[in-house]
Each structure stands twice: as C-alpha cells, then as structure tokens.
C-alpha cells in the first residue's frame, strides 16, 4: 500500500514539474512581437521598414523595398463585403498612381484562407502587391480591428492618415495630395 502511494506521489510530482517546465519554457522563450509600426515620443507613428512581408508567392520582402515612397497599406479579407466593393477603386487608383506612391494590400490570412485569397485574386485580377499575414502579427501591430482598414504613410514613413472602412480612388487621391 505504501509503495502504491509512493508511486502515485512520484507520478503526480513528475506531472506537476513537467507542467511547470512547459509553462516556464513558453515564458522564457516567448518571441517578442516586433512591431511593424511604432509610436514616437511626440505621439506620431512611423512604419518599421525592416518588418518582414510575406508575398503571395510565399517569398519574403520588407517595407524597405518601398522606402522613399508614399505607402498606402490596405488590410483586407476575401470574405469582407466592403473589401470586395472597394477593389475596383483600388485597381483604378493603382493604375493611375504616380511613381512616388505604392499600394500594398495585406490579406488577413490568419482570419482567411490561402485558397480563398487565390480565388479572390483570380476573380478581381489584382495587379498590385499582395501580402499574407498568416499569423496576424501585422494586424496586431497596426491595431487593425475591422476590414478594410487603410494606412497612408508619407515618404519618410510617418503615418499621416488611417481610413477605417471602405475607401475609394477619389479619397485616396485627395489624402495623398495633402501629404
């Protein structure tokens, strides 16, 4: 009887130690989320150019590739009605934008699926850069809570405008002309 109690105690202690170890490991080795946008001392926000971006073809790049341009960063999802409605305006804007402006569309892949994105791209024949946010880190860093959401950064990377909800070509042109 004492032997069974001893074995039960040893097994229980082993399980407790393993659970504590797993918990501590997760805390000790937790990868800190590197923000894609930071807040400066004066309260303004700025893009972090070395943030990794996953292209639709699953190659990677960074915002650095677009440094020196006005950036229009649009977060969207294939199932989002307003996102679908704004696509013709985004395409028209992209086709008429100047060389100093770039439109980057970041899909909320953490809340979407690769296949749905592929169908969306095929249906709408998108011709601007599409990126995937598979784990939601970009959305978290940009504090995106609804789709679509569009951020407009000046050529130095300072956030100038945030548009929550659907936008159109005229609004984007107007906002960019004010930068």
Automatic annotation (TrEMBL):
GO terms for molecular function: oxidoreductase activity. PROSITE patterns: THIOREDOXIN_1 (PS00194), THIOREDOXIN_2 (PS51352). One of its GO terms (cellular component) is cell envelope. The keyword Acetylation does not apply. GO terms for biological process: cytochrome complex assembly. The keyword Lipid biosynthesis does not apply. It is found in: Cell envelope. SUPFAM superfamilies: Thioredoxin-like. InterPro entries: Redoxin (IPR013740), Thioredoxin-like_sf (IPR036249), Thioredoxin_CS (IPR017937), Thioredoxin_domain (IPR013766), Thioredoxin_ResA/DsbE_sf (IPR050553). Pfam families: Redoxin (PF08534). Keywords: Cytochrome c-type biogenesis. Residues 47-179 form the Thioredoxin domain. It comes from the Bacteria. This is TlpA disulfide reductase family protein. It comes from Lysinibacillus pakistanensis.
């Amino acid at each position: 009887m004492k032997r069974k109690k001893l074995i039960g105690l040893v097994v229980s202690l082993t399980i407790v130690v393993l659970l504590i170890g797993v918990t501590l490991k997760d805390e000790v080795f937790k990868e800190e989320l590197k923000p894609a946008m930071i807040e400066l001392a004066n309260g303004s926000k700025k893009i972090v150019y070395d943030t990794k971006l996953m292209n639709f073809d699953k190659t990677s790049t960074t915002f650095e590739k677009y440094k020196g341009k006005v950036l229009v960063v649009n977060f969207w999802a294939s199932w989002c009605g307003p996102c679908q409605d704004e696509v013709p305006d985004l395409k028209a804007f992209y086709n008429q934008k100047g060389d100093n402006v770039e439109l980057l569309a970041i899909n909320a892949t953490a809340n979407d699926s690769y296949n749905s994105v592929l169908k969306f791209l095929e249906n709408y024949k998108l011709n601007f850069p599409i990126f995937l946010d598979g784990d939601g880190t970009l959305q978290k860093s940009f504090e995106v809570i609804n789709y679509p959401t569009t951020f407009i950064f000046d050529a130095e990377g300072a956030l100038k405008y945030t548009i929550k909800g659907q936008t159109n070509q005229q609004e984007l042109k107007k906002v960019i002309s004010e930068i």
